[in-house]
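Rotation project, supervised by the postdoc (A.L.). Task for the rotation student: set up a whole-complex structure prediction and record inputs and outputs verbatim in this book. Inputs entered:
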Amino acid sequence: DSGVTQTPKHLITATGQRVTLRCSPRSGDLSVYWYQQSLDQGLQFLIQYYNGEERAKGNILERFSAQQFPDLHSELNLSSLELGDSALYFCASSVNAGSTDTQYFGPGTRLTVL
Amino acid sequence: QKEVEQDPGPLSVPEGAIVSLNCTYSNSAFQYFMWYRQYSRKGPELLMYTYSSGNKEDGRFTAQVDKSSKYISLFIRDSQPSDSATYLCAMSATGSSNTGKLIFGQGTTLQVKP
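Outputs recorded:
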């Protein structure tokens, strides 16, 4: 158990809908990362927050947005869902924001868009 | 062309074999190199972490980085059935932005047969 929690574990929804994925980092970690894992694209970095502020952005679609709250938990919002958004979404956390900080991954949320 | 290339396998070996997993990359800015292990339907967990070129050993695992060839390897000695998993290489670059953005390979699926 990494100490990172994600809810829900599974999510099934329809095209065009909007969903929210939630992540609680390990106690004491200030950085939260979101990754998307699909069969064809592998594990891809979406976005990083550090202590409530956006720190880095990857190939995150405009339909997707995220935020980190004062209690350091984070939410990833996915809207106007398409079939291709079906994937595993992982949250990771680390103590600080840099490349040398070990990232601990949560168990993931499996999103299925029908 | 992807920044990080990794043969997805699958790779099947008998118990006790030495396993070699490899990644190549194209971005010279990568300075930090990691290997993650991911069991089916779980989040990735950090196995090994190296900075710049050289070797690092941890028990049955050895990580090698050859920056001149842009090539990294993970060796597993005396492989066990419990090593059956997907192994992902990951890399990050230093920079003034000081982010933890990781670029992952596609992952290699390893099966160790008893």
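Student's summary: Residues 9 and 83 of chain B are 15 Å apart (CA to CA).
Supervisor addendum: The mean pLDDT of chain B is 92.
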